[in-house]
Structure formats: structure tokens, C-alpha cells
Amino acid sequence: MNPTALIAEDEPLLAHALKAELAAAWPELQLLATAGDGRSAVREALRLLPQVLFFDIRMPGLDGLGAAAELADRWPTDEAPMPQLVFVTAYDEYAARAFETQAIDYVLKPVQPERLRKTVLRLQQALAGQQQPKSAAADEALEKTLAQWRQVLAAAAGNGASASSAPGAPLRMIAASEAAGSTVRMVPIDEVLYFEAADKYIRVLTATHEYLIRTPLKQLLTQLDPEVFWQVHRAVVVRSSAVEAVHRDEAGKLHLDLRGRPEKIPVSRLYGHLFRAM
Amino acid sequence: MSVGALPRFRAENIRSMLRHGLMTVAFCCFIAAALAITQHGSWSAQMVYSMSIGLISWLFIDVGRLLISGHREILWPSGPWGYLLVAGGVTVGFLGGNAIGDAWTHQPLLDFGSFGERKLATTIIITVTATVCMCFFFYSLGRSKHMLRQIELAQRNATEARLKLLETQLEPHMLFNTLANLRVLITTDPPRAVAMLDRLNNYLRMTLSGSRALAHPLSAEFERLADYLELMSVRMGERLRYTLELPEDLRDTPVPPLLLQPLVENSIRHGLEPKVEGGEIAVRARQDAGRLVIEVSDTGVGLDGAPPSEGSGFGLEQVRERLATVYGDQGRMSLAAEPAGGTRTTLSFPLPPHA
What we know:
The complex is a heterodimer. In chain A, the strands form three sheets. Chain A has a seven-stranded antiparallel sheet, with no helix packed on it. In chain A, 31% of the residues lie in helices and 29% in strands. Chain A contains seven helices and 15 strands. In chain A, strand 6 (173-178) and strand 7 form a beta hairpin. By secondary structure, chain A is an alpha/beta fold. Chain B has a five-stranded mixed sheet, with helices on one face. In chain B, helix 1 (11-39) packs antiparallel against helix 2, helix 2 packs across helix 4 (117-169) and helix 5 runs antiparallel to helix 6. Chain B is an alpha+beta fold. The chains are: A alpha/beta, B alpha+beta. At the A-B interface, helix 1 of A face helix 5 and helix 7 of B.
């Protein structure tokens, strides 16, 4: 069976060019669809379950990183193995630097045939490694793929290993508005149990209160101590010491119970490794 | 808390105080020498009187000004406090200095009666004149230093703003994506590639050098907008549509170069790019009661839809500042939400008389 792929690229000429270059470098590859934005990329990928994804990092609606993170959660792993992920970007110094050593790949626009052939070779090897009967080995392969995705997403977001040293001291107080009303409160970071991104806001939750801030989660993460606060979902960061229990539901999804909060916190597949029993 | 920890007594201020002290000493020596020669008195006695009066006044005024002026930019008390301080310094210096001098020369303490009228008057005049002159001199020194700092700061800010403008316009993503598109066109559609290259050429020339000119005709401004929008529409394809409307009689109106570009860029970056189906940008110029009105409107996600991102707001700030620089309070800019979604930015300023 021919390998299958999906391209997400918002600039029509560049999508066309990538298609042409791929056709030359990998004639057997069957292109299932081309999406022009992040949302339809996720939708099409879940519908068509391709083996390889070429995602532009900058896209309208939902960017490539967001689309990949969402796919990581929603991908039906019992129907098809996690796809191989290749980021396509015109200019991204973080990504370019960090990806040099990554197992999965990035391609810089304009796509160079030479460089693309290398990517194709890597993809072919990775796909060959996946052709195993469903077994413990498949789980292992999934875990490996997830680890790769994690690395790639962290690197592309600019907060990977290369940029882990947060600029400035970790945050101690947060100026946050109260959920109802115009008062701004200074909330000590020690009281925060978790952060949850909602729309344009981030909800800041303590044992007794809820506040709102407008800083994007990505930016907030750089100001938090990574030992203390763990990202467990693309929209949720929890205080690690507040985690009381981890549950797995029938569908295999993980949820957290926190000390001091009644909610169940979803854990993304990407971050499931944080809670594997020792 | 030690004195050094008080911000008003930071090292830099103490240094300038000591410098004032040294100058005071030199000035006092000069006065003492002049008095010793003209009045044939004892040189050492004149020196003690002069030095004591001068140093006491200096210490009183210089410490006093720091205490009263606190954290002001120019370290001199405002209004009557400055005069009171000088008067206080003169009085304290005169009395204290004379007391020390009298003790040194074993004369009756502050016995001004024995001086004779003329001598008392001379001493007072010398003390007052010297102190006021010194104070004015030090005040001017501090003020000019402050002004120099302000000028430097303003120059730094201006340079920074220019660099930042350049950076937003030559944003690497924009540049590299444009080049990537160009590369595709070279093989697939050479005539279009040439056209795009010409647009890019114009765009770069304007961005890199043209912004130094003070004004250019509105028609030139619209042509540069067309270059930029054409580049963007090659990249975005169907997702970007635009119209430029410039009435014939406004073509030659002088405007600051690249004034409109940040607005169009905002419309694309914060309005249309986040919107999956894209949309339309319209730039229209018209005349209204002796004023030039330019509208940049888009059908993008609107003011609330765009997530807060770094760099947003800089373009608007920049346009607002340039309007204020060129037209003073006659230049206006307003930002409004379009009823059908999207944003409309309106600039208006007086038409030059000859246009």
C-alpha cells in the first residue's frame, strides 16, 4: 500500500510547490488532501488518517503547532498509528536550530529538492519501522512517536531544551482580574493550583478563587518554574505538588484529581508520560 | 538606613556636590586674595573668613537642595523654595562664617558694630553676590546637564523607533515567504515572477531609504501600498482582495512617507491573516471641509477577535506619533469596529493650502 500524506499550507503557491517537489522526491506518496488553515488540517487529518503530515507553522485560525497538539490528543491510535510530522516554515530560528538534531523533520521554505529527499528518506525509514503487528511493540512505537512529537512541538514553540532557561526570575505574584468585576488582585503564585486557557483568557485557579489573565499560555510558561508547574494539556498547566491521583477512563484517557479543587483535569496524550507509574 | 541608600544621596549626586564644593573653595581663595590685596588685611584671616562663609553656604544650600527637591529631574527646589534656600544659605553662611573668622582672629564674636558701616556693607554684598552667582552657576550647570541627557534620550528613542519600524516592515517571515513564492513563480509563471520582483524591489527601496524623506505625494504613497498589497495577494491568493481609491485632485497632496503602510499591515496581520476565509482591504482618500481623510478598512476578525500578540499596537502608535509630529493637534486618528466585523482606521489632517 502506498504511503499517504496531508499538506497544511495557507499560501496557495507554496502548497503547490511543495506538492510538486514531493511528487518528484517521493512518487509513491499519495497526497490525500491539502488544507489551507489549521482547523481544516485537523479535521481532514482525523477523517483521512494519513501517515505523514506536512504542517506549515504559521497558518490562519490555528497554527501548525496548535493543530499538531490537538491531533496528538484526538488521534485514534487503535485505527491508525500516529502520523509522522514534518513542519514546514519560511523562517523560524528556534525551529531551525532545534530541529537540526531532531528525529522528525522540518523543511525550510523554499523547499530544496536535496533537503526534501533527506526528509523523505527519514520518513520512509520511520514508516517501515511502524509496519508491525499490533502488540507491545506497537505501544512502544506509539510512545516513541509521542516523545518525538513532544520534542518537535517544544522546539518549534521555542521553549524546548535550547530555550529552557527562562528569561528573568520565575513569577512570584500575578496581577489578575477577578472573574466578575473590574478589580485586579495580586495573587501569590504559591496559591495557584492550576492555569487553564479559555478563549482569549487564562483562568487562574486557587483553592478558593478563580481569576483571569490575558497573557498567552505560551508566554506564561516561560515565567513559571518548570519543576513546580507542569503542562499536562495544551490548555492546562498544573502545580505538580497538588496532583493527588491519576485516573484512566474506559477510553484510555487520563484525568487528574487535584488537592483542593473538585474538577477533573484532562491529561493530553503528549504529556501522559509524566504520570506513568514508576 | 544609611544615607547612601537614599536615592537622592546616590553616588552621582554626592560627586556633583563635591565638585561644587571644590569650585566654591577655589572661588573663596580668589575672593580672599582680592580682599587681602585691596584692603591690605592679613591674608590668612581673609582666607578663614571667606572659606568659612563660602563652605557653610555651600553645604547648607547643596544639602538643602537635595533634601527639598527629592526625586525631581533637575535637582533644584521649585518656586519660592529655591530663593528661600539661597537666602537661608547666605544668612547661615554669613553668621557662621563670621563667627569662625572672629574666633580665629580673636575678635569679639560677631561684633559688627566695631567694623564700621562700610566694612559690614562690603562683607554682606560680597557674601550675597558670591553666593547668588555660585548658585546660579551650579543651577545652570545642572540644568544643562539635564537637558543634554534629555536630548540624548530623545535621539536614542528616535533611533529605536526607526529600527523597530524597519524590523516590522522587513519581518523575516514576510521576506522569506515572499522569496519562496517568487521562487515558485520563476519556474511556473516567469512574467508574474518579474512583476512580483519589481514590486518587491519598490517595497524594499521605500522601506530602506524612502522613509527618510519628509513628504511625498499621496499618489506615491498609494503606489507603495499597491506594491505591498500586490506582494501579499500573491502570497495569500484568493484570501486577500483589495481596493485603493484616490481621487484625481488629491494625487499631489504631500503626505509623510509610509504613513499608511503600518495600518494596512495591521489589517492584514491582525485582521485577515487570522481569518480562515480571508477578506478585503479598502483604502480610500477623500476631502472633507479642508481636511484630508484617509480610511483603511478591512473585513477581518475585528478588534476583539485578534489574540493579544507582541508587536501589535506598535504600528498604530507609530502612526499616531508621526501625525502628532507633522500636524500637531490637527492630526487625528481613530479606530472603530466595522458593523459587519472587521476594523476601520481613519486618519485626518488639514490639507496643505496649495493642494
